[in-house]
Amino acid sequence: MAVSENKFIIVSPAQAEYEIKKSQFIGAVMPCANEQQALQQLRQLANQHSNANHLAFAWRIRQNDGFINERCNDAGEPSGTAGRPILAPLGGDNIINVVVGVIRYFGGVKLGTGGLARAYGTAAKLAIAQASLTPWVEMATFTLEIDYSQLQSLEYQLNKCHGQIIDQQFTDRVMVTISLPASERDQIKKQFETF
Predict the structure, then answer these.
(1) Which residues are CB-contacts of 82 (< 8 A; sequence separation ≥ 6)?
(2) What is the CATH number of domain 8-135?
(3) pTM of the complete model
(4) How far is CA 23 from the centre of its chain?
(5) Domain ranges in the chain?
(6) Consecutive H or E run containing 125
(7) Across residues 2-9, what is the average pLDDT?
(8) d(CA 183, CA 187)
């Protein structure tokens, strides 16, 4: 039986700076749930650094079907010298739902393709090192219909497994929509579903 490889997410944004031959590289790592969020984060970064020469980036975002969407962009640097070196540590550390942007302020001295790749990769690694990583947990969302008398017990069980009620409708019974770690789904359903 194959052991599934642990995936990680970052808890909050982080930045790090790296300077080489008068060029300044600023790496910024940010959590994101989808491409739209990633692009929004990159636009904000571009606005903060509107005088920068380049903003190269990479992201790894888990899709609903489990597929990891990876994308990188060299932002006008020679092909393969910026985006790929930024993406490499994300794949190496199996970090998902993340976008990393590296801003470059050109210092007047050309670094060559190898130097550029090392500089972009270093800025990305330094930013990732500043971020707090936590194991990613697959979540499941579903709806249950329960009796009023079961609501407190359900809240207690969800609290124990880091789940939560995200919606509830009250009629003669309670219709609750819950989100919880997928590994707990069957147990909660078995405990609270009525047949």
Answers:
(1) 54, 56, 72, 73, 74, 75, 102, 104, 116, 117, 120
(2) 3.30.230.30
(3) 0.75
(4) 28
(5) 8-135, 139-192
(6) helix 112-130
(7) 66
(8) 8
